[in-house]
Amino acid sequence: MQYREYINERVHSLYWNDDLNCATTILITLSEIFQIKLGTQIVNAAIGMHGAGKYGAQCGLAEGSLMFIGILGKEKGLELKEIVTRCYYFAKEFEIEFGSLNCRDLRPQGFKPDNPPHLCEEITKRAIAFTLNYLNSDSNGSN
């Protein structure tokens, strides 16, 4: 994949230098790849989207990607119904690929007070590559 090095470097930087969560990291990285400027409110909306504020609910890797599918869909002039369909198929394929949509299932070591920071760095890189592949494929519900 042509973006592998960029994804690796950007995710590491956003996690360790900016201390961002997975949803925000996904949104920023994908927006940079697709050269779409994100508004401050969009980035702010992702603040608590890492398993619902570490509650362990829907994973920010899925949430950030789903938000970006909506953003990109509108940029491309897609109808709402088409964007919803693409989100549906993304969620379905994400669950097949990663085994769950829930943070509590995907996060290495779960949520413990003594967890080291940014446990999800590697799975975030994989999720961005997966999302990028999905966005560039013909199997994204647009058939």
UniProtKB/TrEMBL annotation:
Q: Which domain of life is it from?
A: Bacteria
Q: Which InterPro entries match?
A: CGCAxxGCC_motif
Put simply, this protein is called C_GCAxxG_C_C family protein
Species annotation: Candidatus Desulfosporosinus infrequens
The beginning of the lineage is: Bacteria, Bacillati, Bacillota, Clostridia, Eubacteriales
